[in-house]
Specification:
Layout (H helix, E strand, L loop, with lengths): L1 E2 L1 E2 L11 E2 L6 H15 L7 E9 L7 H14 L1 E12 L8 H8 L3 E7 L3 H6 L6 H13 L5 E7 L6 H13 L4 E6 L7 H4 L7 H17 L3 E4 L2 E3 L6 H7 L12 E6 L4 E7 L3 H7 L6 E5 L3 H12 L8 H8 L7 H9 L3 E3 L3 E3 L1 H5 L1 H6 L9
Helix pairs in contact: 1-2, 2-3, 6-8
Length: 376
């Protein structure tokens, strides 16, 4: 569920987010999300929802009443697991006293708080609207509201950042005792302000030093790495993201939202995405014009997409998961996997998974599986 508004667009952000210059059309947009969902229901009849992720933008700009109405509408339309994981993304700069309690009462049982840093100077350099005090307060409020499961988003490799500063951020985050940490390197994505006006970032040797030392600190504090940038206490993995990494299906509802649905009867994967501009989405949500595009990946693309996700997981994947998720025979990927194994990038002892060298050079490894260019 995508809510595309934020207070201010961050210079590194390539998500479909739009600054909220006037009042938000909350009621109209929640109506639109449920209308969008109604039109997607025929493609998922009989399926059970295991997780809901309300992302953005900054969904915490919406009221708890709106989130409650959205979740009630979903439950009225779809069968949900009793232990449904429901995550809401939140910005520390938009959290008020008591707001997290209201979200909890509305049915949210997991928060993902976009802290990014606890250093005021670093936060200023990356354009965040909050400071250290608000970041610390947001974690405290999450605990006070009874969230036993929440994630802190934290970046390293920020403009001018030293290893000492990066590790200080990480220690502060762990001291707040979140159940989950997303700790990842800042990258300059196309179509962002930072891509057009790149800041000076730490070099590769410094980045590797940050990563090695940080991973050692996380392990010592009981945070197990289970994906390239995801670390969790025992049993607190993010189920929603695991579904992506295991190449599961998902509905995408909202402006710019993407979805992947497998038609099991014909073993065909169908992708689609909604129009990105919120005004266009609201104007067309009752019709097929809300669809920004559709596609069906070819077999070679499916192989690459599966590996792009599954090889991010420390546990890797088994051949049965590949065949179940893609509808393809394992022989389509096994020769390339064995070549990567011979190069020391993969290991196999039932699941296929990256070696330490493979994790360090994951992009090089994935290049082994890129589909050939289509003929002109």
């Amino acid at each position: 569920m995508h809510i595309p508004w934020c207070v201010r667009k961050c210079p590194y952000c390539d998500f479909n987010s739009h600054e909220a210059h006037a009042g938000l059309p909350e009621r109209q947009y929640i109506d639109a999300l449920l209308t969008d969902l109604d039109q997607e229901l025929p493609g998922v009849w009989g399926r059970v929802v295991g997780s809901i992720f309300i992302g953005g933008g900054t969904p915490s700009l919406f009221s708890a009443e709106s989130i409650d109405r959205l979740l009630g509408g979903i439950r009225a339309r779809l069968t949900c697991k009793p232990d449904l994981e429901i995550t809401l993304e939140a910005n520390p700069g938009t959290v008020e006293q008591g707001r997290f309690r209201e979200f909890r009462a509305a049915g949210i049982n997991r928060l993902s708080i976009g802290v990014q840093s606890f250093d005021d100077s670093m936060l200023g350099r990356i354009g965040r609207i909050h400071g250290r005090r608000e970041a610390l307060r947001a974690a405290e409020l999450a605990h006070d509201a009874g969230f036993t499961s929440f994630n802190l988003d934290l970046m390293f490799g920020l403009p001018g950042q030293t290893p000492t500063q990066a590790l200080a951020d990480l220690v502060t985050a762990m001291d707040l005792e979140p159940a989950h940490l997303s700790w990842y390197q800042l990258t300059l994505e196309p179509n962002t302000y930072f891509h057009r006006h790149p800041p000076e970032l730490p070099d590769d040797d410094v980045l590797w030093q940050m990563q090695e030392q940080g991973q050692a600190q996380l392990a010592a504090r009981g945070y197990t790495q289970y994906e390239v940038s995801a670390y969790a206490r025992s049993g607190r993995h993010c189920r929603h993201n695991l579904n992506y990494w295991q190449y599961g299906d998902y509905l995408g509802i909202g402006a710019g939202a993407h979805q992947k649905i497998t038609d099991a009867a014909v073993q065909r994967i169908r992708r689609s995405w909604k129009v990105k501009n919120p005004r266009d989405y609201l104007a067309t949500v009752h019709t097929d014009a809300r669809i920004g595009g559709r596609g069906e990946p070819a077999a070679a693309e499916v192989v690459f997409e599966f590996l792009l996700n599954a090889l991010r997981l420390n546990a890797g994947f088994e051949s049965a998961l590949f065949e179940q998720a893609t509808g393809l025979g394992f022989e389509q990927v096994q020769p390339a996997l064995e070549r990567a194994q011979q190069r020391g990038l993969l290991e196999w002892d039932t699941p296929w998974r990256c070696t330490e060298q493979g994790r360090r050079f994951l992009n090089d490894l994935l290049a082994e599986f890129l589909p050939d260019d289509e003929p002109a």
